[in-house]
Amino acid sequence: MIQTNSLIGMNWKPTEQYTTFEQLQQKIIYVIPRYIYQFIGIEGLPRSITPAVMQYKADFFKAILNPLELDLEKKIFLQPGFDLMETFQYNSYPLLSEDTAWFGPMAFLLIPLAVILTFFSKNKLRRNYCLFSFVYSVIYFCLVFLQRPGWDPYQGRYFILGLYPLIPIVSILIPKQKILQKIISTVLITCSVVLIFNTLLKNDTKPIITAKSQNDFIHQKIDPLPESTFLQFFIKKTLYKITYPSGFENLRRYIYGQKYYDQLFYTNNISVKDIEFVNNIIPDGTPIIVMIQNNPLEYALFGINRSRSLYPIIDLDEASPGYFIVSNVIEITLTPNMRLIETNGNFSIYFIEPG
Questions:
Q1: pLDDT value at position 2?
Q2: How many whole angstroms separate alpha carbon 266 and alpha carbon 206?
Q3: Distance of CA 15 to the CA centre of its chain
Q4: Which of 18, 73, 181, 254 has its CA 20 to 30 A from that of 207?
Q5: Tens digit of pLDDT for each residue in 159-168?
Q6: Short-list 173, 194, 168, CA closest to 45
Q7: Do 264 and 226 share a structural domain?
Q8: If you average pLDDT over residues 15-34, what whole number do you get?
Q9: Domain boundaries, position 232
C-alpha cells in the first residue's frame, strides 16, 4: 500500500487507458465480448476435436459481431506493453497453464443452466442463495473489469473467486428420479474424467503423453512382448491400437524428457536462454539483487532446489553489494561502484562493489 499509494495494494489502472464515459463505453464494447468468448471454454477437450470446435466458436462470434462492425481482434484495450502473443485472436489455441486457463467447458455448460433453473426453483432458500451468489459474481466481475486497463490472456484466474459461490447450485441439475439421476451422473463423471485426463496428461503446456512418449513406450515396452500364442498376439495387438499415436498428439518431447529449466519454461524458450545467460555468469548459490519487470525469469533465478536467495528492489538506492540483475526496459542511473559484467537483449548483469 505504501509503495503503490493504493488501498488494494496495486496501481489504479483505468486512468491509463480511458478517462471519459465514451472511452468506458468503448472498453465495454470490446472487452466484455472477449470475456464471453473465453468463458465459452474448450480447454481440456481432446486434441482431435479442439481445432474444429475452435473454428465453430470463432465463426459463431464473427457471424454476430461482423455485421456490427465490431472487430475483437483490433489491438485496443489490451494490457500496457502487450506483445503479439498477448493480443486477442479468435484462433488462439487455449493453453492450460496457471496463468492462462479459464473455467473449461463444464463451467460454461452447467453454471448458466443451473442459475436459470434455480431462479425458477420452488425452494426459497435456494433462490435467495442463487440471487446473492449471482449479484456477488456480477459485482466481483465489474470490479476486476474496472481495475484492469483492458483484456489480456491472463485474466481468467482473477475471476475464479467470483465464480466459486455459484458452484454449489449446480447440484440442481441432478434429478431426484433414480434412473435419470444415474444417467446424468454417469455422463457428468465421464466428461469430467475425459477433461481431467487431457488436462493432466495431454496438457500442451506440460504434456506427459506426446507422440514421442507413446513411440518410446511402444518400442521399450510393447515391441518386446511375446506373441507366440493367440492370447499373447491379441493382447499385443490391442496394446498397439491403444498406444499408437493418432496424429493429433503434441509433437514436442514430453515434459519429463526435458531438463529442469526446459521443464520450467516449456512454453517460453526465450526465458531458457535468459537463465542460461545468468547461470554462465553468476555462480549457483550466490545471492542476487533483482530489478525485473513482468518477466517469468524470477522463477528460475531461485535455482534448482532454491539454491539462490533473491532480493527484489524497486529503487537502486536499496541495492546492497553483490550481483545485480536489471531488465533492460528499466532505466537506471549507474553509480561509481557498479560494474557492468554482461548484457543480452533482455537483461544486464552488474556487480556492485562495497561502498
A1: 52
A2: 7
A3: 26
A4: 73
A5: 988 999 999 9
A6: 194
A7: no
A8: 81
A9: 207-257
Torsion sign, CA atoms 146, 147, 148, 154: negative
Q: Which string of b and e fits 29-56 if b means at least 16 CB within 10 Å? A: ebbebbbebbbbbbbbbeeeebeeebee
Claim to verify: residue 213 and residue 336 sit in the same structural domain: no
Query: Edge-to-edge strands of the sheet including 347-352?
Result: 310-312, 288-291, 322-327, 347-352, 338-343
Q: How many CA atoms lie within 13 A of 293 on its CB side?
A: 12
> Tens digit of pLDDT for each residue in 290-339?
998 777 888 889 988 888 999 999 888 888 999 999 999 888 888 889 99
Distance (Å, whole) CA 103 – CA 48: 20
Do 102 and 166 reside in the same domain of the chain?
Answer: yes
Does residue 227 sit in the same domain as residue 309? no
Structural domains of the chain, count = 3
**Residue 249 belongs to some domain of the structure:** yes
DSSP SS3 for 286: coil
Angle at 113 between CA 110 and CA 116, to 5 degrees: 145
* 8 A C-beta contact, residue 41 and residue 102: yes
Q: Residue 324 domain-assigned? A: yes
Q: Backbone phi, then psi, for 265, in 5-degree steps?
A: -115, 50
User: Which of 124, 152, 173 is the last residue before a domain boundary?
Assistant: 173
